[in-house]
Design goal:
Layout: H1 16-22, H2 32-49, E1 55-59, H3 63-74, E2 80-85, H4 88-99, E3 103-108, H5 117-126, E4 132-138, E5 140-141, E6 146-147, H6 150-160, E7 165-169, E8 188-192, E9 204-208, H7 210-215, H8 228-235, H9 246-262, H10 264-284, E10 288-289, E11 301-305, H11 312-323, E12 328-329, E13 338-342, H12 349-365, H13 374-394
Parallel strand pairs: 2-3, 2-4, 4-7, 7-8
Antiparallel strand pairs: 1-9, 5-6, 8-9, 10-11, 11-13, 12-13
Length: about 400
């Protein structure tokens, strides 16, 4: 029996083309054959990041490792970084920094709000001595379904006249939502293979600006496995300083080819259409997203706030047990208060309708005040018009 699609915010559904691309025989990763495979993957990621000035570095790891590599290569113990805590993944990045001996200037924001650019600007303007070495932004807070305005944070940094590095967690946004590394002045962009690139977990993918590479010269944090300098030296010879994840890199090249074939702008538009249909369904259920304002709603995941007296975790649990469909549970401060619907990667409007129908059935089974078919009908109505508009625009 075929597996149902997953509706979690990663790992995402893997297209057959990518699964087959990953399924390759062992090759010598120090041979020209690997270099011929590796080059298209790097070039493809640069195109998705929209960077010409930056370099791409791939570690056989995950997005969390990407956070770690970002700070290890550019900072020193005792350095100050500025970050907002407004969701589980911004919280985890802050925790990682503290474990590495960094001084975190933490700005607390409600879970459901975006990173506060104005508060960042005020903190940077007060830092006349330049103690703050980096600003950390979670572009898409996966726990709450909130998108932050990275370009707005860059403008705030520029208004403050501050020279800190801008590091961005784009794990659940890159390859699915608008992301412009060069235009937004991002110094390190972090993502993983298992989200918009539609691969299994196992690659930490980083875009690194010339400014970040320059910062490496004075960085004194210990690093070995995640050393950018070692990676860059090996890349120049067409290889790795250690054994790479060859199959995943082959799959990454194929994923980038698929994104290019669809067109990055079309990929972004598809994610927006699917997400908007989910939001229409949530409204038809009489519920609301965790994101506190429409303009900050994520196009890759929606955290649905459950009514008082209900448990969001049970929705995801029942969907898995009874209908064999994966929905996301709430995390951290919103555990039990929400369930999450992932809508990114290899996903279509038709596939999304099955996920919405399953969420409706699970909620009805649990006694939620939700009418079967209401959310699906709202999404269908939107998708019909949106798909026709997209078709006409393409002609």
């Amino acid at each position: 029996m075929s597996q149902n699609p997953v509706f979690i915010p990663g790992p995402t559904n893997i297209p057959d083309r990518i699964r087959k691309a990953c399924d390759i025989a062992t090759i010598d990763h120090r041979s020209p054959k690997f270099a011929r495979l590796f080059g298209p993957a790097i070039a493809g990621v640069k195109a998705v990041l929209r960077t010409e000035a930056g370099e791409v570095i791939l570690f056989p790891a995950t997005g969390t490792a990407g956070w770690e590599a970002a700070i290890q290569n550019t900072l020193s113990p005792g350095d100050t970084v500025l970050a907002a805590r407004h969701g589980m993944f911004s919280h985890r990045w802050i925790d990682l920094c503290r474990r590495h001996g960094l001084d975190v200037l933490q700005i607390d924001a409600p879970w459901g709000e975006a990173a506060p650019a104005e508060a960042f600007e005020a903190a940077l303007a007060e830092d006349r001595e330049g103690r703050i070495k980096a600003v950390l932004v979670t572009h898409n807070e996966t726990a709450t379904g909130v998108r932050s305005d990275v370009a707005g944070v860059r403008r705030a940094m520029d208004r403050a006249g501050h020279g800190a590095l801008l590091m961005v967690d784009g794990v659940s946004s890159i390859g699915s939502m608008e992301f412009r590394m060069d235009d937004w002045g991002i110094d390190i962009a972090v993502t993983g293979s298992q989200k918009g690139f539609m691969l299994p977990p196992g690659l930490a993918i980083l875009g690194v600006s010339p400014k970040a590479l320059k910062a490496m010269e004075g960085a004194r944090m210990a690093r070995t496995f995640f050393d950018f300098a070692d990676m860059r030296a090996s890349y120049a010879r067409g290889g790795y300083p250690y054994t790479p994840a060859v199959g995943l890199i082959a799959g990454l090249a194929e994923a980038c080819e698929m994104i290019a074939e669809e067109g990055l702008e079309n990929v972004i538009a598809r994610h927006h259409r699917i997400a908007e249909g989910v939001r229409r369904a949530v409204a038809a259920w009489g519920l609301r997203p965790c994101a506190m304002r429409p303009e900050i709603c994520s196009d890759t995941v929606t955290a649905v706030v459950v009514p008082e007296g209900f448990d969001g975790t049970r929705v995801a649990t029942l969907a898995a047990e009874k209908y064999d469909v994966a929905l996301g549970v709430g995390l951290g401060d919103v555990a039990g208060k929400v369930f999450r619907i992932g809508h990114l990667g290899a996903l279509t409007e038709v596939m999304m309708l099955s996920g919405l129908a399953t969420a409706e059935m699970a909620m009805a089974d649990l006694g939620f005040p939700v009418r079967l078919g209401s959310g699906v009908a709202a999404a269908q109505d939107y998708y019909r018009g949106a798909k026709e508009a997209a078709r006409l625009a393409a002609e």
